[in-house]
Design a protein that fits this description.
Blueprint lengths: L1 H26 L7 H23 L7 H5 L3 H27 L3 H11 L5 H5 L2 H13 L1 H12 L3 H25 L3 H29 L2 H10 L1
Length: 224
């Protein structure tokens, strides 16, 4: 019972910021980003974190905290890419209107052709790996917490902890999906979500770099 409670508290403490990330993902659902993509991506990124933590706990891999912080570059890149894509899409829409092209009809036809993707296409959908990458980068600091935690327990105990973690990932997705259904939350994110998300990702990346001491580490290396 103590192990279960400790695992729940540890997961909540190290993944509380994932709730906001999941809220932004769920608010952006469309034909390209579906709920299944978000859930699979969240699991994929988190499982990668757990695997690295287990390897680190076994002493097979030592990851300096400053290097872990470098993963913050990923959400920064995705955030700037999102801003560029928004400006590009807006420019294309304006150009289409000027030229009298049916931009919305073209988008609809593209969605229609991809209405029934194969199972392989669903699994390898870019949105899944986008969510997984951000989840992994956001959880970079989790590795430093999970490694000593896993190192203190035996094999079967670690198995219980991992199962609890996987269950809580689903719980996190469920909570975020329910919160998005509240009118105020849903309306705000629907109206401003596409603008907020890139800045959230950029801020998240800067936070990861700062919390892991990567900025000071790089500055020290440059000044030497």
């Amino acid at each position: 019972m103590s192990l279960i409670l400790t695992s729940i508290v540890l997961f909540a403490a190290t993944n509380i910021d994932d709730i906001f990330l999941l809220l932004t993902w769920f608010s952006q659902r469309d034909s390209k980003l579906k709920s299944t993509h978000i859930i699979f991506g969240q699991y994929l990124g988190f499982i990668a974190l757990v695997i690295l933590s287990l390897i680190g706990a076994l002493g097979a891999l030592i990851i300096p905290q400053e290097w872990i912080g470098l993963m913050g570059v990923v959400p920064i890149y995705l955030g700037f890419k999102g801003l560029v894509d928004q400006f590009r899409e807006r420019a294309e829409e304006q150009q289409a209107e000027r030229e009298g092209e049916a931009y919305i009809v073209q988008e609809a036809s593209i969605e229609e052709t991809n209405e029934n993707p194969s199972r392989i296409q669903k699994f390898f959908h870019p949105s899944i790996y986008k969510v997984a990458t951000v989840t992994f980068a956001n959880g970079g600091d989790n590795i430093g917490v999970y490694i000593p935690f896993f190192a203190t327990y035996k094999g079967w105990q670690i198995g219980i902890v991992v199962l609890i973690f996987l269950f809580l990932v689903a719980t996190w997705c469920y909570i975020a999906n329910k919160l998005i259904s509240f009118p105020l939350v849903a309306k705000t994110l629907e109206r401003y979500g596409h603008i907020i998300v890139p800045f959230v990702l950029i801020g998240l990346g800067v936070l990861i770099l700062n919390e892991n001491g990567t900025f000071s580490y790089l500055i020290d290396k440059l000044l030497k």
